[in-house]
Specification:
This protein is mainly β and 145 residues long. The protein has no helices and 9 strands. Bound molecules: zinc ion.
């Protein structure tokens, strides 16, 4: 019997965020974005910029960032990038740490307003080349109790 040469299956693309961006505990406790503070000059950045754009330092300390921020601006996207199911929403979120974060917003289009408070969540931000969901950080409206 001829040995059948099984074609090696393609490795799946990365389906989750980069480890420098987000801490999402497996135990389901609250996730946070990772800020990176330069050990030489103290500048805080997200995402991590290396070397430090202020002093060229190369050592950083991880600082958990606030989970809530203020929506600075947002836009609904109806003609999306390949692999992105439309419509989706992008926004800039200002955190208390004086960082402006670019992220997808989770929720219905045409419902977000500038200056509203949003909070961190995780969810699908797109589909990779293998048809698998790419999970990463997003922001959503603060849940009403
Ligand atoms: Zn620095």
């Amino acid at each position: 019997m001829a040995k059948t040469q099984k074609k090696k299956e393609k490795e799946p693309d990365i389906t989750f965020f980069h480890d420098d961006l987000l801490h999402a505990p497996a135990d389901g406790s609250e996730a946070f974005l990772k800020g990176w503070k330069c050990k030489k000059c103290g500048q805080l950045d997200f995402p991590k910029l290396t070397p430090c754009p202020n002093c060229w330092g190369s050592e950083f300390e991880m600082v958990p960032l606030s989970r809530t921020g203020t929506l600075y601006s947002c836009t609904d996207i109806y003609i999306g990038a390949p692999g992105m199911k439309t419509p989706y929403i992008f926004g800039y979120i200002d955190l208390p740490e004086n960082l402006r974060i670019f992220a997808q917003l989770e929720g219905e289009v045409d419902t977000f307003k500038c200056n509203e408070t949003v909070e961190l969540t995780t969810g699908t931000i797109g589909i990779n080349n293998d048809g698998l969901p790419i999970t990463s950080y997003k922001f959503k409206k603060v849940s009403q109790q």
